[in-house]
Amino acid sequence: MPRRLRTLRAMTEITSRAEVATDKPVAYMRQLCKHFGHKVDTGYGDDSGHIQFDFGRCELHASDATLTLEVSAADADSHERMEQVVGSHLERFGRRDGLNVTWQG
């Protein structure tokens, strides 16, 4: 894709971020990537990963006690869907640890 089109596309994307406190950020990052990896493109390393849906993308970053989720989508409906899908799955996986996903942005 030409650079100008990439720049215009990036400018029109809707983004938000959630910082989730957890003692196991890497484990939850991997669990999300593995779970969605059965249906969509995912990848992860030691402290970061991504999940690429048809309707948006999630970037994941694990630090000492935080899992940061950054979702982006081209329109409001897709963006809301990204927040709901990623957030609800993480909260379900982390139910025993009381994980709570609150989106900002």
Description:
The protein is of the alpha+beta class and 105 residues long. Mean pLDDT is 91; it is low at 1-9. The two termini are 27 Å apart. The longest helix has 18 residues, at 76-93. The chain has one domain: TATA-Binding Protein, CATH 3.30.310. The protein is built from 3 helices and 5 strands; from the N terminus they run H-E-H-E-E-E-E-H. It is globular.
> What percent of the residues sit in helical stretches (DSSP H or I)?
25-40%
Task: Give the low-pLDDT segments.
Answer: 1-9
CA-atom Rg in angstroms = 14 Å
Question: Which fold name fills CATH's third level, the topology?
Answer: TATA-Binding Protein
Summing up helix and strand content along with how strands pair, one would put the structural category as alpha+beta
User: What integer is the average pLDDT?
Assistant: 91
Strand content: 25-35%
Order of helices and strands: HEHEEEEH
CATH class: Alpha Beta
Q: What number of structural domains do the residues give?
A: 1
For the biggest sheet, the summary is: 5 strands, antiparallel
Q: What shape does the CA trace take?
A: globular
Distance between the termini: 27 Å
